[in-house]
Structure formats: C-alpha cells, structure tokens
Amino acid sequence: MTDQRIAPVRWGVLGAANIALKKVIPAMQGSALSQVVAIASRDLAKAQAAAKSLEIPRAYGSYQELIDDPDIEAIYNPLPNHLHVPWSIRAAERGKHVLCEKPVALTAQEARKLLAARDQYGVQIGEAFVVRTHPQWLKVKEIVLSGRIGELRLISGHFSYYRRDPGDIRSRVEWGGGGLMDVGCYPITISRWLFGAEPTEVVGLIDRDPEMQIDRLTSGLLRFERGHATFSCAMQLVHYQTMQIFGTTGRIAVEIPFNAPPRDETRIFVDDGRDVAGSGIETITFPPVDQYTLQADRFSAAIRGVGGVPVSLEDAIGNMAVIDALFRSAESHGWERP
Asked: If DSSP codes are grouped into helix, strand and coil, which group holds residue 163?
C-alpha cells in the first residue's frame, strides 16, 4: 500500500524500546503513509537521544505529554506487556489510533477493556503481529485456501532463543514475561489464521525457571474442528524457528517464519508429497521486504479509511484466550477450553 493520494498519518511512539528504535521506527520512516513526529520516554534525555538519532522532530519526558499532543494522530505502543492496555486506553481517550505490540494484553479479559475503549472512542486499534502482513505468509494462506495441499489437517511450529537475564522485562512474571507471551503467541496466531477458526480446546505443558518463575519452555496442542496445531517455544533454548503446514496431499514449510530478514530474500517450500525425499518440492522465493513497513502501510491506510487493520482486537482477544487456556492447562494437567 503506497498510494500517494493518501495523506501520511502522524505517529507518536511510547517508549524507547529496542524494537521501536531498531525495527519499527526506521520501517515507518520508510513508509509513504507514515510520519513519526514524536517519541516519549519517562527519561527525557533518553527520548531526546532517540529523537536525535532517528531524526524525529519532538521528544517528550512522559507518555501523557505525547498523547496530549494534538498534532499526533496515532500511537505505536511497544511498552512492556503490562502497560499495553492502560496506555493504549489513555491514547484512545484522547482520540488517538493505536498500534499495540503483541501480546496486546496480559489476559483476554484485560484485552476486552481495550475493545470497549475502541468502540467508545471510535478509533482504530490493532495488534502488531507483523508476520500477518508479510508476502510469504499471504502466499501460504493463498495456497492453503486453493486446496493445493489438500485439506489442512496439521500445523506444527517452534520458536526459541536463549536469554536468561533477571533484569530483562521478559523475565518478570507480573509484567507478562516468559516464552509463551513473547514468542509462543506467533505459532498460535498463525494457526488460528490458517485454520480460519478458534481451537475448541487446548492442552499445555510448561517448564518454569526455578528462580524467576517465567515459563522458559512451553509446548502446546490446539484442537480445531478440522485438525490440530502443535507448537513449542522457549526463552532458554537454541535460537531457532520453523513452521510447517500439512495437508492431506501436500505440505508447506516456511524457512524463516517470524523474523523474516528485511534485506534478504525469503523462501517457502511447497511439497506435493510424492515421496519423502522431497523430489516434488517447489521453492517459492520472495524479494526482500520490510514487514514492519508493510504493517505501517496497512495500519495507516486503515486510519485513512482504506482497508482494515491487519490484526483486529477481536483477533487479538482470540489469541489471548488461547494463551490463557494454555496457562490454565499447565496447572490443571488437562484440556481447557479457550
């Protein structure tokens, strides 16, 4: 979406998180539909340093100051998970549209408060699951819907990295830390999206860090009416990611499913299932693209009334409900309904 007839949306960014400074803001600055005009931090000097480095016109020493800026139309919220809903609601109250990082809330119940605010104040609010805008995933969805791999029956995913740091915000249980919230949410949203449905029940197995109590290794099984989705995720495991989609007659593998590199090609492999050696595999290659720029394009266009936000709050609530049920299952040692 690069229609020059659409006036660029003026964005403000809450906080100086690494994802904002290194990925999202530079990507937004590469979008014809987005202008980052302000950044805020509780530390004014930090906001000023970020603004200078990224050539952002204004810096604020509090989140509220930025939200109160009448020139800002939309907010990008990459704050720690426990601050997603409170500050997104405050932005909505001031008439700002909000693109909120994943996971959108700590629980589905909390996410519903954000949905109520969206409807009350008439703004656009969406969850920043950037993978849902990448061409490789749009192609996977197209292939699944075409019937090329037969009927979709199984989705299998894994997402892990190693980081054990008590000072990291992802190491705080009360702030929504842990592997399931941080990276397990990706295979869940992809599975729900590809099946086009919500799981009827789920079961989860969690191994927690003995000191920090965050889930460091989680495995899950989601039962859908038409099939299953399985996944594992971890914060203290080798850095790796994969997603495979299995149909009754074929299979799709996504080489780099979640952290698709913005300056390199990406590939998916479509196997017609003729043999286990993979002689029937077609490799589909996609040119380099920044999925964060695409996300900004889609969201800004939606603000201007063109299309919809890539991941709606209704969708986000569905994802949180699955995560809630997996946590319950780990405690009950049984199946739970989202």
From this structure: coil
